[in-house]
Amino acid sequence: MSGIEIQSCPACAKTWYLPRQLCPGCGHAGPETRPASGQGTVWSVTRVERAPDETFRAIAPYLIALVDLAEGPRVMAHLTAPAPIGAQVTGEVRDIAGRALPVFSPR
Ligand SMILES: [Zn+2]
Question: So what's the pLDDT on residue 38?
């Protein structure tokens, strides 16, 4: 299990990543939360040289990717090794600089 969770709307079937109280598509209350497979495809990658705060400065430089999950939603995540756009990656939630964040690795 990846520890990555997504939400979906029982009314309109839209899926998304960051938890919300209401569906961003139709406003329906009561979205359903379910585990994601952790399988995804790289949409973009950037190497962060200037981290946003002291905690992340300690681990810079690091890679941040936008990953399209197999279930649909796009996730911003750490990437353990360089991967080209379109690469297949596998991810899970890990502790990064004291925070529980999604981390992906090339398959
Ligand atoms: Zn909806």
Answer: 97
Please give the Cα distance from 55 to 43 (Å, whole number). 26
Q: Please give the structure tokens belonging to residue 49.
A: 């040289």
Gap from CA of 25 to ligand 1 centroid (Å)? 5
User: In 4-61, at which residue ranges do the beta strands (DSSP E only) sit?
Assistant: 5-8, 15-16, 32-35, 39-48
Distance (Å) from CA 70 to ligand 1 centroid: 19
18 Cα: distance to centroid of ligand 1 (angstroms): 15
CATH number of the domain at 53, please. Answer: 2.40.50.840
Domain that holds residue 47: 5-106
Q: In angstroms, what is the span from residue 82 Cα to ligand 1's centroid? A: 35
Q: For 84-98, what is each residue's pLDDT tens digit?
A: 999 999 999 999 988
Q: How far is the CA of 11 from the centre of ligand 1 (A)?
A: 5
**37: pLDDT strictly greater than 80:** yes
Tokens describing residue 85: 């756009």
Count how many domains the chain has: 1
